[in-house]
Specification:
Layout lengths: L2 E7 L8 E7 L8 H14 L22 E2 L2 E2 L21 E5 L8 E3 L2 E2 L2 H8 L21 H11 L6 H5 L6 H12 L8 H14 L10 H5 L7 H13 L6 H10 L1
Parallel strand pairs: 1-5
Antiparallel strand pairs: 1-2, 3-4, 3-5, 6-7
This protein binds iron/sulfur cluster and FE2/S2 (inorganic) cluster.
Length: 260
């Protein structure tokens, strides 16, 4: 099959950027989208041109590294699918595709389709962990967790941190990502001691990074390759309301002092 690709090209964060159009021939339906770009990049390099920069690592839908917008849809037209798992059989001969990086003030474009998503790392650093002395591995059944809770926590933990939710949201909100990271810890008994501090700090960091707020549009859920659901945002908001009554304890203050 033959495709026409119109791709965002930007040399560095200061470059204003522009679209460039390329023809790609002999695309096999068995190729992944990234393999199709690999073929185009080889051609570009053989012609002495710069290849299109895009991020990837596992190419199996698990690392969260890949991601860009295809014809206005984050990760492309297949629901619940990362762009590395998107195959060319879902496109047809003669298709015209527009490829753009995630668009959000909090995700500055580094080059072409690659953006800086370190804002998501900083949200995790602000509280997405459990600080406890683990010691030896405890007996598996010493702390019972109801099956429904474990399943729900597992659903939240499926978030791969790709940032598609931010790219899809008209408010460039990172609430689905942040909610997933908060809920997968807050649903477990081990996550309870720091639950309020966690939501307080992570939502605060999210706002400080310049992400917008949620206005219940739901584009994030539709774009999420791991089908993380809006109810996690509702759970995060409930915890956030409770956390507004939370005040740092003496231990928290000592902890903050030790960190400073
Ligand atoms: S919530 Fe979904 S779209 Fe957002 S970062 Fe996690 S996996 Fe990606
Ligand atoms: S490259 Fe790892 S999720 Fe796509």
């Amino acid at each position: 099959m033959k495709l026409t690709l119109t791709v965002w090209r930007q040399k560095n964060p200061a470059d204003p950027g522009r679209f460039e159009t390329y023809q790609v021939k002999d695309v096999s339906e068995h190729m992944s989208f990234l393999e199709m770009l690999d073929v185009l990049n080889e051609e570009l390099m053989l012609g002495g041109k710069d290849p299109i920069v895009f991020e990837h690592d596992c190419r199996e839908g698990i690392c969260g590294t890949c991601g860009f917008v295809i014809n206005g849809i984050a990760h492309g037209p297949r629901r619940g699918t990362t762009v590395c798992q998107l195959h060319m059989r879902y496109f047809k001969d003669g298709d015209q595709l527009i490829l753009e990086p995630w668009r959000s003030k909090a995700f500055p474009v580094l080059r072409d389709l690659m953006v800086d998503r370190s804002a998501l790392d900083r949200i995790i650093q602000s509280g997405g962990y459990i600080s406890t002395g683990t010691g030896a591995a405890p007996e598996a059944n010493s702390l019972p967790v109801p099956k429904e809770r474990a399943d729900l926590a597992f659903d939240a933990a499926a978030c791969i941190g790709c940032g598609a939710c931010v790219a899809a949201c008209p408010n460039a909100s990172a609430m689905l990502f942040t909610a997933a990271k908060i809920c997968h810890l807050g649903l477990f008994p081990q996550g309870q001691p720091e639950r309020l501090r966690r939501v307080h700090d992570m939502v605060g960091q999210m706002a400080a990074e310049g992400f917008g707020g949620c206005t219940n549009i739901g584009e994030c859920e539709a774009a999420c390759p791991k089908n993380i659901g809006l109810p996690f945002i509702a759970q995060m908001n409930r915890d956030l309301i409770v956390s507004s009554f939370w005040r740092p304890s003496k231990t928290d203050t000592l902890h903050a002092l030790a960190e400073s």
